[in-house]
Here is the input.
Amino acid sequence: MKRLVILGAGTGGTIMANHLKKELDDKKWGITIVDGRKQHYYQPGFLFIPFDQYKPEDVVKPIQQFIPEGVDFVNISVDKINAAQHQVVLANGNTLLYDILIIATGSEIAPDETEGMQGDEWGKSVFTFYDFEGAIALRDKLKNWQGGKLVVHITEMPIKCPVAPLEFAFLADSFFKDKGMRDKVEITYVTPLSGAFTKPKTTETLNYLLKEKNIHIETDFAIESVDNDNKQILDYGGKSVPFDLLVTVPTNKGSQVIENSGLGDELNFVPTDKATLQSKVHPDIFVLGDATNVPTSKAGSVVHFEAEILTENILAYIKGQKLEEEFDGHANCFIETGGGKALLIDFNYDHEPVTGTFPIAGIGPLRLLKESRFNHYGKLAFKWVYWNMLLKARPIPFVKARMSIAGKDYN
Amino acid sequence: MDKIISGKNIGLTDEGFLKDFAQWDKDIADALAAENQIVLTPRHWEVLTYIQNEFKNDVPLSIRKIGKSGIVDIKEFYQLFPVAPLKTATKIAGIPKPVSCI
Here is the structure.
């Protein structure tokens, strides 16, 4: 009996367990999935919690609920991987041997990477919505906040769901309008990038949104520290931005397990072949989702597409064949723009987001790179799709792992 | 778009990055630096050489990475290339704009 071990029962690990349970011969292969947590979070929902649009209980379910029958679930944290011995060491000292290892350990926030971020103001005027507890704390803060300077801030790239902070700024604009206090709030968006959107076409199409919502933007800001005494953030180039309420996206790093195992780069992301999703160092290790260093967004849609490709490649690897399936970097993201509207973007390693129709060329019903109510309903409906289809690796109609260029307005 | 830089016709992206590293040489680096109000010193060249080597080895670049390179810390990187240092340095080094996702 050969053994395939999956580390992490988040989005990527859970989808892989469901795919492989269907594909592998259970007389020849045993599948084990390892994760020390009890809960599975619908992470895109964190964005809506601060504005009280989602309740905390909407975004959390027992982790075990999505592990398919016949897959061993080991509910213990991982200490490290001994790649040379093809072995995983658990936090309790037990070991698991593997013939194939899938790393799906994700990414997490590391506020301690920035000087002063977790200082006296942390939880008082400095918040993040990038984890469950943080999103709830921010909701409680916003309930009674009297207004002032709201600064929405990205520490450094890459981050999970790169559009989320911008969505936060848009939703904040709507939230304060609805409360009748928009005139008391000054919103500034601070980014280490050269624009709110990093792709030229998107910037051209969407810059009107910032103007329309009266959101100030501060670009090329590489934070050095949070100054708790004077309530301002300072950058290496000498710039400063004052805040009354700082909503920051801290540095995102791969799991500590990766660092313990010596398998990561300087942010604990695993060097991974961007087409085959095989480790660049160990042929019996495959990586997907936020844990990789591949140059596309760290997002649920990406891991969903990667899982289809990776399943084919693992089957080929088992047969001793060449890995022929190639991931193209496909990402598909709804962007909430406030006021009950949303945008949809679809892109990959080579093609930046453009206007057009999705998922059916020429028909839609969703419109790319254009605000619409329908897109917003699509985003809300996605929570149901996530729990009921995506995690269980059921096919989503018309949406393919490789990006289609049909129905899109390339020049 | 094409542009004449130090007497040569150079292909540039809309954002001013060289399309083809093969067209790059030290005179072009000096000219691109001057456009960004920078005079290249031996310290600048150490950083530019490091950046070019990382690019050739297919290693994604970030400000953090350069800060941990052992060549410069982030503070000095900013002193050398004061405005948007990673973008400016990669442009002068003749390599593509670092990918930072959307």
